[in-house]
Write a structure and sequence with these properties.
about 675 residues, Alpha-Beta Plaits, Heat Shock Protein 90
Length: about 675
């Protein structure tokens, strides 16, 4: 079977199982006696082992097998769970993740995991009991030197099962050659010849091809069926010269029954892969609750498909072209004033609107795909910083466009690291300030209108606004006079200014501010905004506002002289017509009184240097826009109306155009530039 076609599915599902292991291990740390959690981790490890073996990634399968042994011993209460065991399993999961990442990047998935395997074996050795200690010591000795055979295919499994039913004995024979053995391949041939005189070799580890090419150390293992007893087999193999040691371990009835279970699960895995569907673990799919939902679960699974994001990108690009043509047809319909054409275009607009919603929803991904990496990161950072920190995640099922999800991960990592390092105090300091010695960091996401808000809140030290202002003045980011008139919120947001973060400042400011200018620029590059609310001694709240999607947006089309511009509706509060007599001057700035608030006016014809072709009217058309809590009035010549447009990049050549986030093609074929309101409002 050609495995390359299943590689992408394998990588995706492996990442899901590894993430599930991480999440459940964190739960187990809080509830060490909960064996149900251990069962969940065991299932993920077991499924990952089966998939890895099927795909031929032996190192991955071997490590998960050893991890599975430890988990099996814990869930059967043969060994007691402890923080030391948890740390070792976390290390094993880290190695698994590194191997999967290697495969994803085109590597072979190999990694030296000898250290963690030895630790897992040491843990497993403690499970011996009085009744079976000798057998388990022998088995453990074998595991120390050779990887067990786990990846039996369907044909091999059938042979083992039928042999058992017909009275044959099944053994795993481990052969150790002497250290000074020169012709290893020849000795392997002689061992195989001896064994085949007594029965039949089913499988070897390493595979026969590698044994023939001497691609192994001094030991190998074979699965062997025979009617002879173990001692006869051992004696026969020991007669081969330069064989130092032979261990013959019978397959137990449990091993054969487990093999049957493995076979069923691998059939399910292959079937799902061939259908390009995500795998549904048989043990999970077979669960039936009090309401009898087993059939429902199977039905839901059969209706789920996995689609490559590149295909969705192609679909979105084609639909964007359709939206442009739709706008063109609407324009033609208005010009020709043909009733039949008008009705047809209206129907087309409704259908494409529904199609647009479907396509956008297909691209929506829960933010948990980003959030789920943070609990493990917080646990490790808290240890490194000697702090006690509890991370709470709220609203992880909130959905965002995949393109936004891909961009938001790194800024959030930076903000969380910043909160842990510079926000949350050490337990000693928190106790001295009458706080709970365990700090709390809350990461929440929620929808609001056409936006998603992601907030990071902590109960740490907050921002030392006095020191921030002093540093900003020293850096020339703000004058001393202007700094005195800034609000607390404006002072807090100074830490987002470019040039504010320096190595010197890291130790001087007892709050935040390491590289947050990069976070701000990244968020604004995807049409988002970031605001800060902080109370010294009580904590900080970083709020990020993001657009639901970056591809198709609703805009207000406006005209400036003979040029057309598009202002995103997500930034607009309302529009107004203002007489020139209502224009005021304050602090050398043109402003208007908007509902009791002084709002500065920005003349887009001056900002974009639009050539003046027509005389000015007695009234100004103004678009009131918002950035966080800040308002501004954009002065235009006239309003054209609302429209859905496709946002197109200006390319690298025009990427630095001030206050322009992209362009769109209108129905009449003209190009309208899309105004970046965030860049205009300071």
């Amino acid at each position: 079977m050609e495995m390359n076609q299943y590689l992408e599915v394998f990588i995706e599902e492996s990442k899901e199982h590894i993430q599930a292991c991480n999440e459940h291990l964190l739960e187990l740390e809080k509830e060490p006696g909960n064996l149900q959690i251990v069962n969940e981790i065991f299932r993920s490890a077991h499924t990952l082992k089966g998939m890895s073996a099927t795909m031929g990634y032996e190192d991955l399968a071997s490590l998960t097998h050893q991890m599975e042994n430890v988990l099996d011993a814990i869930r059967n209460q043969k060994i007691a769970f402890s923080p030391v065991i948890l740390d070792v399993i976390f290390l094993a999961v880290d190695d698994l993740e590194a191997m999967v990442e290697s495969i994803a990047s085109g590597g072979d998935g190999k990694k030296n995991v000898e250290a963690v395997v030895k630790q897992l074996i040491a843990i497993e050795k403690n499970e011996s009991t009085e009744t079976d200690s000798a057998l388990q010591e022998t088995a453990a000795a074998i595991v120390e030197v050779i990887k067990p055979i786990t990846n039996y295919d369907e044909f091999e499994t059938t042979i083992l099962q039928q042999s058992s039913e017909q009275g044959f004995n099944t053994y795993e024979v481990s052969v150790h050659l002497k250290q000074d053995c020169l012709l290893k391949a020849a000795r392997v041939f002689m061992v195989f010849e001896s064994l085949e005189s007594l029965g039949e070799v089913i499988k070897s580890n390493p595979p026969v091809e590698e044994l023939e090419e001497e691609k192994f150390d001094l030991q190998f293992m074979v699965t062997f069926i025979s009617k002879e007893d173990g001692e006869t087999i051992k004696s026969k193999v020991m007669n081969v010269s330069e064989v130092e040691k032979v261990d013959v371990i019978p397959f137990s009835s449990y091993s054969l029954s487990t093999l049957k279970t493995h076979e069923k699960e691998e059939k399910v895995t292959k079937q799902k892969q061939e259908e390009n569907l995500p795998e549904v673990n048989e043990m999970e799919a077979g669960k039936e609750d009090d309401d009898g939902k087993q059939g429902t679960m199977a039905k839901q699974a059969s209706k789920t498909i996995r689609v490559n994001i590149e295909r969705l990108d192609i679909l979105m690009n084609l639909f964007e072209e359709l939206v442009i043509d739709r706008g063109r047809l609407e324009q033609i319909s208005q010009d020709l004033k043909n009733q039949e054409l008008h009705e047809t275009v209206e129907k087309m607009s409704r259908i494409t609107g529904d199609l647009q919603n479907i396509i956008l929803n297909m691209r929506m991904v829960p933010v948990e795909t980003v959030f789920n990496r943070f609990p493990r990161m917080v646990r490790q950072l808290a240890r490194d910083l000697n702090k006690k920190i509890n991370l709470e995640i709220i609203g992880a099922d909130t959905e965002l466009d995949r393109t936004v999800i891909d961009e938001i991960g790194d800024p959030l990592v930076h903000l969380i690291r910043n909160a842990l390092d510079h926000g949350i105090e050490t337990p000693e300091v928190r106790r001295a300030n009458n706080k709970n010695e365990e700090g709390t960091v809350v990461l929440r996401a929620y929808h609001s209108g056409n936006h998603v808000f992601i907030e990071l809140e902590d109960d740490g030290a907050g921002i030392n606004k006095k020191r921030v202002l002093e540093r900003a003045v020293d850096k020339g980011l703000v004058s001393k006079e202007a700094g005195n008139s800034l609000t607390d919120s404006q002072i807090a947001e100074l830490i987002l200014a470019s040039g504010f973060s320096t190595a010197e400042k890291i130790s001087d400011i007892s709050g935040r501010g390491v590289g947050l200018d990069v976070v701000k620029s990244k968020i604004e590059s995807i049409g988002g905004t970031i605001t800060i609310d902080s109370q010294e001694g009580k904590g900080s709240l970083f709020s990020i506002q993001l657009p639901l999607t970056l591809s198709i947006i609703s805009v207000m089309l406006v005209e400036i002289q003979e040029e057309k511009y598009a202002i995103p509706l997500s930034s607009i509060i309302e529009t107004a017509i203002v007489s020139k007599e209502d224009i005021l001057q304050a602090h050398n700035q043109t402003v208007i009184d908007f509902r009791g608030k002084v709002v500065p006016l920005l003349f887009l014809k001056d900002i974009f240097e639009v050539p003046i072709m027509n005389e000015e009217d007695e009234f100004y058309s103004i678009v009131i826009v918002r950035k966080g809590e800040k308002l501004a009035g954009l002065v235009v010549d006239s309003f054209i109306g609302q429209q859905e447009v496709v946002l197109k990049s200006l390319g690298s050549y025009l990427s630095n155009a001030f206050a322009i986030s992209g362009a769109t093609i209108l129905g009449d074929g003209q190009v309208a530039l899309i105004v970046d309101c965030n860049a205009l409002i300071k």
